[in-house]
Structure formats: structure tokens, C-alpha cells
Amino acid sequence: MTTETMVRLPFEPKPLSQALGAEVTDFDVKSIRPDEAKAIVDYLRECQVLVFRDQQLDQPQMVEFLKLFGDPLYHVLKQFLIPQHPELHVLSNLKTEDQEPVGNAYEGLTWHTDLNGQNRPVTFTVLYGLEVPSEGGDTAFASMYKAFEALPAERRAHLEGLKFIYSYEKQHRVRLQVLAEKGITDHVYDKPMSDEQLAYARRRHVLPIVTPNPYSQRLWINLASTGCVGIEGMDEEEGLALVDNLVSHCIQPAFRYDHKWKPRDLVMWDNRGLFHRAGEYDRKKERRLMWRGSIAGD
Ligand SMILES: [Fe+2]
């Protein structure tokens, strides 16, 4: 981190774990100026996850916040976009008076990097917790930089020569399986896909496992744990065993920060270099209402 970056940050962050994450208190994100946003991005690329506590944002203000950092992406599940502000996607277990879901209740239950099947993953993702469970529902993060750097040199060199094959179709299938195993039926994922969604789902992407961050050149492990159908040039079983083994390595506590939500937390992460997963909570007892936004890959 440069001294210049330190000076220009408009707040004093505190580390959240040994591996990653920083917390910001007594600061209103509505006060961020465009030049400060640049300093925040520089800092976020190092700490990976920033937690702004106790924010008071309405929908237009959250959209303004997103636009400080690039072009907002519209989520592919269009039914949960806020009509007046389609940059925001609603995550919730709540229902309307007509028993219609207010938002997506089952997003991200397996380890993933947002849109990592694409050549340009999402740059930043932001979650704003308006109502959060009193227990459970933690969002877990794992630093794929730290996980890579902790491997022996020989294993790092081996991984640097490998490419994984990603299929959204498989990710979708595994997601349905996970939901079925939990006895969850009131989700949206078994609705027929649109032509646009189908075209995306059927594409196969071959991507290097070890990927440099384009800004820092720091290497990270890019994996699609549930969407991975194999390793290029490797027998399917052997490839998937390698992926499973690598995922277990990456999600160890030493590389983790698990965020316990407080109401009005605004959590922003640098999607590259990170694995994350939504945590379970008692959906019958607890209430969760979040807005999610993300910034298109650059
Ligand atoms: Fe995600």
C-alpha cells in the first residue's frame, strides 16, 4: 500500500481477520467523492472485503454508491430486480401478502466467484443488509491469493500449467441438487431458462486455474467449485478430484473471513481473488432483506 493511498482514504479501516477484510465505522458512504473512490478501490484490492457499518441508504443512494466504482451490472435473475432501480437485485426470504417472494432466498449457497465462468468476472460486488438474521446467514469469504501463496512451490508450478472447464449448466444442476437435499422447494431455479440464459448455460469456458490480478499481477486460484466439469487434458475423475482437493485447501480457516451481519452493514468485495458462500439460517424464524449490486468486469 502506498503512503499516498493511506493519506487519501477518507476513513481508518480496522482489519477483520488475519487473512482478509477490513471494517469501517463512523463513516457515511454517501460522503465519498470520486477521487476518494479511486483510493478506496486501491485499498479494497489489498484487503479484498470492506465492511461499512451502520449505513443509511435508500435505493437511489445505493445506485449512486455503485456508480462511484464503475458500470453496474444487471443480475440475470430479472424477476428480483427492483423495477425502478434494476441495478439492485433483492435477496430475501420474505413474502408479499399474496405469498409472492420478495426476493431470491437461495443465492450463492455453494463456494463461488461471481460470474467466474466468464473471461471477465464481476469486478466488485456489494451487499446491503436492511434486515439480517439474528443468527446464521454469515457470508463466508476465502482469499484465493493467500491459498495460492501457502502452497509448496512445486504444487504452485503444477497448477500454473492447468486450465479448468466451467459449465453453468452443471452449476445449475448442482444447485438444484443441494436445494433438494435440504428439502427446499420454494425456489426459482427450476423455472425454465430464457433463450439468453440457455445460451449462456450451454457455453463451456476453459480458463487458467492460476490467474494474475490485472492490476497487481498477484496470482490467485480461480475455481468454479460446483460448475467445474473437469481439467483440460485430464481424465474427468482425476480432474474433479484435484478440484475438490484444492477447494478444501482454499476454504481453510487460515484464509477466511466469515462475516456476521449486523443490520445496515454495507459489504463490498473485490471479486477477483476471492471465493465466497452464503450461509444457512432459519428461514422460517428469521427475516432477511438485502439489496445486491455489482460492477461489470473491466
Ligand atoms: Fe456470489
What does this structure look like?
With 298 residues, this protein is an alpha+beta fold. The protein has a single domain (3-295), classed as Clavaminate synthase-like (Double-stranded beta-helix), CATH 3.60.130. Helix content is 27%, strand content 25%. The chain is built from 8 helices and 17 strands. It has helices spanning 3-8, 34-47, 59-67, 144-149, 153-160, 168-181, 195-202, 236-250, and strands at 14-15, 22-24, 49-52, 72-73, 81-82, 85-92, 124-131, 139-143, 163-167, 204-208, 210-212, 219-221, 228-231, 256-259, 266-270, 274-278, 289-295. The strands form 4 sheets. Strands 1, 2, 3, 4, 5, 6, 7, 15 and 17 form a 9-stranded mixed β-sheet that branches. β11 (210-212) and β12 form a beta hairpin. It is globular and about 50 Å long. Bound molecules: fe (ii) ion. Residues 108, 112, 114, 276 line the site of fe (ii) ion.
Q: What is the strand content? A: 25-35%
CATH topology: Double-stranded beta-helix
Helix content: 25-40%
Averaged pLDDT, please? 89
| Coarse morphology | globular
CATH architecture: 4-Layer Sandwich
| Total individual domains | 1
CATH level-4 homologous superfamily: Clavaminate synthase-like
Sheet having the most strands: 9 strands, mixed
What's the end-to-end separation, in Å?
A: 22 Å
Unreliable sequence segments = none
What Rg is obtained from the alpha carbons, in whole angstroms? 19 Å
What small-molecule ligands were found? fe (ii) ion
Broad structural category:
alpha+beta
Secondary-structure element order, as H and E? HEEHEHEEEEEHHEHHEEEEHEEEE
The CATH class, by name, is Alpha Beta
Beta strands, count? 17
Total helices: the number is: 8
